[in-house]
Structures are given as structure tokens and as C-alpha cells.
Specification:
The chain has helices at 12-24, 29-36, 40-47, 53-84, 90-107, 122-139, and strands spanning 143-144, 148-149, 153-154, 164-165. It is mainly alpha-helical. Helix 1 (12-24) crosses helix 4 (53-84). The chain is elongated and about 70 Å long. The N and C termini lie far apart (66 Å).
């Protein structure tokens, strides 16, 4: 016996909040659906414009309050970050802070990347990493970890050349 399908009703205000959350997630419907526990098909249907025109207007009005909340969250995370280092990995706390800042900037229609920066090819990136590793090696000659020299180890670049070490 199949269960009857349950339909949920969403107010225009709630639909607008959900669509603003999609915007904060860079348009990613699946991530938004997972975060909010709402079927992705429902959100995708609304995103395609199958909502009352007022919902789209309300959505735009929701951006700034949501951006303000995310900015407040980012400030809280910045404040607690030093205290959380013993309990959580630095990566976890820093990632949460970065996500909040990124979403806040998206909602304020601010850039989330540095404009004018050219994308580096793998070879250019590897060359820069090699130079950085060489500079670090020159500066780090103090013995650490049982007498081994401090150094940097990088993986092999694209194309299988030798890896960088110390």
C-alpha cells in the first residue's frame, strides 16, 4: 500500500526567503534544498519563474536582511574562532567563516573574487610554488622535529615532473 502524497503549502514570503537562500548559494538549488529540507524539484520549479510576481519582488527585499544576518554570523565566527581552535579544526572554523562572508557578499552583489586577476595555468602555478618553496627553504634553516631541517614538500606538478621538497 502506498502512502498518500503530502503536499506542503508555502506562503509567498517563505518562497521568497527560499529563493533568496538559493541566491546566497550561488544559484545551487540542490545545496539549498538539502540545507532547508525542501524538495529540490519544488525550489527549481519556483526558480524557473513559476511563482507569483510578488514573490520575486519580496525575494529581492530579503537579500539585504539575509546578508546582514550572514555578516553578523561572520563576525561571531571571527570572535569565537580563537576559542574554537582546541575543539574544532582550524579548517572547520575558518571554512564556516569564509562561507558566511562569501554568501554575505553575494547577497550584497559584491564581487567574491579579485577582478582582473588572470587565471594561472598549471605550469605557471607550479613555477610560482617552486619559487615560493625555494624562498622558504632559504629562510628556514633552523633544525626542528629531531634535527631535520624545516622545509616544504609539494606534490609533483602536472606532467609528472619531480616533486619539490625542502
Amino acid at each position: 500500500m502506498t502512502k498518500p502524497r503530502l503536499y506542503r503549502h508555502y506562503s509567498d514570503d517563505r518562497k521568497a526567503e527560499i529563493l533568496a537562500a538559493v541566491d546566497a548559494n550561488g544559484g545551487n538549488v540542490k545545496d539549498t534544498a538539502d540545507q532547508l529540507g525542501i524538495p529540490s524539484q519544488t525550489i527549481d520549479y519556483w526558480k524557473q519563474g513559476h511563482v507569483h510576481a510578488d514573490v520575486l519582488k519580496i525575494r529581492d527585499e530579503k537579500h539585504l536582511p539575509l546578508a546582514d544576518r550572514l555578516e553578523a554570523l561572520a563576525h561571531q565566527l571571527v570572535d569565537v574562532l580563537p576559542d574554537k581552535i582546541p575543539d574544532a579544526s582550524l579548517v572547520q572554523a575558518a571554512t564556516a567563516m569564509a562561507i558566511a562572508i562569501d554568501k554575505m557578499r553575494l547577497l550584497r552583489e559584491q564581487p567574491t573574487s579579485i577582478p582582473g586577476k588572470a587565471e594561472l595555468s598549471d605550469d605557471e602555478l607550479f613555477t610560482r610554488l617552486r619559487r615560493l618553496a625555494e624562498r622558504v627553504k632559504q629562510r628556514t634553516t633552523t633544525p626542528v622535529d629531531g634535527g631535520r631541517e624545516a622545509g616544504v614538500e609539494l606534490p609533483a606538478p602536472p606532467g609528472g615532473k619531480e616533486p619539490l621538497s625542502q
